[in-house]
Amino acid sequence: MTEPPIALITGASAGLGAAFARALAARGCDLILVARRAERLENLAQEVMHQTGLKAEPLCADLTRPEDLHRVEERIRRLPHLDYLINNAGFGVRGLFADSDLERQTAMANLHMLATMRLTRVALPGMLDRRRGNIINVSSLSAFITLPGSIHYSATKAYLNTFSEGLAREVSCLGIRVQALCPGFTLTEFHATPAYVSMRAYERIPRFFWDPPEKVVEASLRHLPHGPVVFVPFFKNQVLAFGARLGLTGLFYRIVIGWFRRRPPM
């Protein structure tokens, strides 16, 4: 009997990570769910196992901590095979860089860049031996749009795009598919965290721009086999990314977002 594919998902306790977990379980994957919140992981694992009969292993880890990152690396090494690596864990730090908390900025860089690089490096040898595997690095539209107050967040996401593009050039001819997923505004808990709640993004940014995480994940997996390495889902976000490349980011925010900020909350 053929063993089911295995997917390891970081940041799996909510948002895009949980959506990836449910979508990959629906595709027949056993899951390893990595995040800091043990109770949420356990609940998601029980949900998946109950609904699909597949395995779902919660692995509580804070990937900004070297010892926890090492535990996840060792778990990957012990797997008989790994078919999907979803590097999704992340958080943002708001505020002018000169005034920001250096420890938080360092932790964000470690999570977005170092953890992604290390887990990918550990996963690749097995994938290359089997000439089969999928790596999705969850980036952001912010990789193209650099604004005061989140410059380091944008820089770490730009790294994920560059890393993914280079990696794809090395391994795509060997059966490994790589994607840097760059969603726009997504209905997750990200903007409800302390760093972002004061922005009142859910009230100020028009609903048209917000996408459910399930829709983002469905688009990501659908385009993974033959889509671009740096994948921006949905036309509205592609327009924003294109405008950013032309240097129109500031104009967009002044005219569109600025206008909606003057509107009363919906």
Automatic annotation (TrEMBL):
- Gene3D superfamilies given for it? NAD(P)-binding Rossmann-like Domain (3.40.50.720)
The Ketoreductase domain, residue ranges: 5-184
What does the sequence similarity comment in the record state about its family? Belongs to the short-chain dehydrogenases/reductases (SDR) family.
- Which InterPro entries did the record assign? KR_dom, NAD(P)-bd_dom_sf, Sc_DH/Rdtase_CS, SDR_fam
**Pfam annotation, one family:** adh_short
| Entry superkingdom | Bacteria
**Family matches, as PROSITE patterns:** ADH_SHORT (PS00061)
Q: Which organism is it from?
A: Anaerolinea thermolimosa
What SMART domains does its record include?
PKS_KR
Record-annotated membrane-spanning stretches: 239-260
Keyword tags:
Membrane, Oxidoreductase, Transmembrane, Transmembrane helix
Name any one GO molecular function. Answer: oxidoreductase activity
> What Gene Ontology terms describe where this protein resides (cellular component)?
membrane
What name appears for this protein in its UniProt entry?
A: KR domain-containing protein
Q: Which CDD domains match?
A: SDR_c
